[in-house]
């Protein structure tokens, strides 16, 4: 797929993987619709991009029902979306027994229902044109579970399952679906991860600091888009190999995760 001239709607575009995706996609000639909650940060990202025709569309993924009511008119003014990248999301670091139920609801609202809502908003026009691409940035945590991530992992497993289903449903309409499962990547995801009370923990973690550079991760994501792959795992070290280890050595993997204090 040639990305030049493609209209790409990107959520979570204000920082981390999203911000780097915006920069690398713009460098390839794509026209970006940049979404996140922080409008000022989105404007800064927009002003840093190569090319013209980029648009800022602020939104709150936790308010999925409102998005379905409020965004159709704005999207109609922007025009057809060629590629939707569901990148926005939030992580979690807390033990299940300590975690408030409301924190699980918050994680599902942003990571899962936000993805479903944005996909709902573009699928009809993609079906009408018999073309388009839907990308979801899930996580290695959507393929394997570990301590401290029961809410995050559950929401990302849901994204993987959702994408598997719509990939089958939309294949006849010429719509391609790509699921991306990154491992540890050097972003602020750990700082923003929710604790048991649903509040950002506001500190980093060794696994993230030693993770894959965000620019390298994004290069692999864009390659997967260009090659129209269906699912990719991206990472290095344990975060890359974990799904394979679990698939072929499930008992070993389960023993390891029970012992590891992986943060």
UniProtKB/TrEMBL annotation:
> Which GO CC terms are listed, alphabetically?
membrane
Cite the SMART domains for this sequence.
PKS_KR
Q: Record's family?
A: Belongs to the short-chain dehydrogenases/reductases (SDR) family.
One family name in Pfam for this protein = adh_short
Give yes or no: UniProt keyword Oxidoreductase.
yes
> Can you provide one Gene Ontology molecular function annotated for this UniProt record?
oxidoreductase activity
Keyword set for this entry?
Oxidoreductase
Upper lineage is:
Bacteria, Pseudomonadati, Pseudomonadota, Gammaproteobacteria, Alteromonadales
SUPFAM superfamilies (UniProt xref): NAD(P)-binding Rossmann-fold domains
* Protein name stated in the entry: 3-oxoacyl-ACP reductase
InterPro entries the record matches: KR_dom, NAD(P)-bd_dom_sf, Sc_DH/Rdtase_CS, SDR_fam
Q: Where is the Ketoreductase domain?
A: 6-186
Gene3D superfamilies named among the record's database cross-references? NAD(P)-binding Rossmann-like Domain
């Amino acid at each position: 797929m040639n990305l030049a001239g493609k209209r790409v709607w990107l959520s979570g575009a204000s920082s981390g993987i999203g911000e780097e995706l915006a920069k690398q996609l713009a460098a390839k000639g794509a026209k970006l619709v940049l979404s996140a909650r922080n409008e000022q940060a989105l404007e800064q990202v927009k002003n840093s991009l190569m090319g013209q025709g980029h648009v800022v569309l602020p939104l709150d993924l936790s308010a999925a029902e409102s998005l379905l009511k409020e965004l159709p008119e704005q999207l109609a003014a922007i025009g057809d979306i060629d590629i939707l990248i569901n990148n926005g999301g939030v992580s979690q670091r807390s033990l299940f027994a300590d975690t408030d139920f409301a924190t699980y609801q918050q994680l599902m609202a942003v990571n899962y229902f936000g993805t479903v809502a944005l996909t709902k908003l573009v699928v009809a026009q993609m079906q009408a044109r018999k073309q388009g691409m839907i990308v979801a940035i899930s996580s290695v945590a959507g393929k394997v579970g570990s301590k401290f991530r029961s809410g995050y992992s559950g929401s990302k497993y849901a994204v993987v399952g959702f994408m598997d289903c719509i990939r089958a449903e939309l294949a006849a309409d010429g719509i391609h679906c790509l699921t991306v499962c990154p491992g540890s990547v050097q972003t602020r995801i750990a700082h923003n991860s929710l604790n048991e009370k649903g509040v950002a923990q506001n500190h980093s973690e060794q696994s993230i600091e030693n993770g894959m550079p965000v620019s390298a991760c994004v290069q692999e994501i864009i390659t997967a888009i260009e090659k129209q792959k269906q699912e990719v795992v991206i990472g290095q070290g344990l975060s890359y190999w974990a799904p394979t280890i679990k698939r072929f050595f499930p008992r070993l993997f389960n023993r390891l995760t029970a012992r590891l204090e992986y943060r």
